[in-house]
Amino acid sequence: MKVPYHPVGSLAGKRVAARWRMETAGGMIRLSGFIWRLAAAGLLAAAVFQGPGVAAQETTTSYSKIDEETLRRMAKSGDLRAQFYLGARLSAGNGGTERNPREAVIWLRKSADQGFPLAQFSLGILYEQGEGVTRNSDEALRWYQAAADQGYALAQYNLAVMYEKGDGIPTNPSLAGKWYMAAAEQGQGKAQYNLGCLYMEGRGVGRDLVESYKWMCLAEASGNELAIKGRKLVEALLSKEDRQEGRKRAEQFTEFLRRNKTVTNRDGAGK
């Protein structure tokens, strides 16, 4: 639940906060939960590639159409991408492969142990949800961390959500802010929205309404509907000059991202 910054003791501020709580109750976007619902529908192999900064087209084309027998042979030979795809198919039960969550974990772990960030991210999801393994927040955190350390934006986002909400682990607003920032700087819209909220609250990061406005504008541009309300709320608390400064920062960041398209997730085993 996101609560905006407001002057302490201010009646108007309390009303704004109350309205924000009603409008955004349950609004924190849990990407792992979203991906898990897709996985339950047999779409994990596609779901793990969704989101800004994920460049997996080459692997999607070359591995997703391989028949199961060939894929298993490649996986047994140590091909980390084949291991990941086999695990994803087994988890989802698609691509002509019978669903087997326990075996899925075996192959995903083999790929993850070789450092493949998509497999590490997927293992984090399975441990967080308790599918094919006993639910274990520490293990989910460990695998999200491994993928996040390689720059995988979706893992960075999920890691930040865990630290913010304290899902089976102590809350840590500072680490939540750090990992939201890492994902947001790669253009991940949900992370940009949540980061804007943290700046609005001054939680985990220094309170800065201009920075909050900047990230809300960026999240809104990425299509995040909650960010529309967030941007308007922050906008009402800023002077004209501060609004202009926030927009300027957003424009500068957009231009930076455009010029530095390599600041994205790569489909590879390492950095």
CATH class of the largest domain: Mainly Alpha
Question: How many helix segments?
Answer: 15
Spans of at least 5 consecutive residues whose pLDDT stays below 50 are: 1-61, 262-271
Q: Let me know the average pLDDT.
A: 78
User: Count of DSSP E strands?
Assistant: 2
State the end-to-end CA separation: 34 Å
SS class = mainly alpha
Helix content: 55-70%
Taking all Cα atoms into account, the compactness measure Rg is 20 Å
Strand order of the largest sheet: 1-2
Overall tally of domains: 2
Listing every helix as H and every strand as E from the N terminus to the C terminus, the arrangement reads HHHEHHHHHHHHHHHHE
Q: Can you tell me the CATH topology of the largest domain?
A: Serine Threonine Protein Phosphatase 5, Tetratricopeptide repeat
Q: Please indicate the percent range of residues in DSSP E strands (runs of 2 or more).
A: under 5%
* Major β-sheet annotation: 2 strands, parallel
CATH architecture of the largest domain: Alpha Horseshoe
Apparent shape: elongated
Word description of this protein:
The chain is built from 15 helices and two strands. The model is unreliable at 1-61 and 262-271 (pLDDT under 50). A two-stranded parallel ribbon has the order 1-2. The chain folds into two domains: 1-28 and 156-262, Serine Threonine Protein Phosphatase 5, Tetratricopeptide repeat (Alpha Horseshoe); 42-150, Serine Threonine Protein Phosphatase 5, Tetratricopeptide repeat. It has 271 residues and is an all-alpha fold. 44% of the residues are buried. Helix 13 runs antiparallel to helix 14. The chain is 66% helix and 1% strand. The chain is elongated and about 65 Å long.
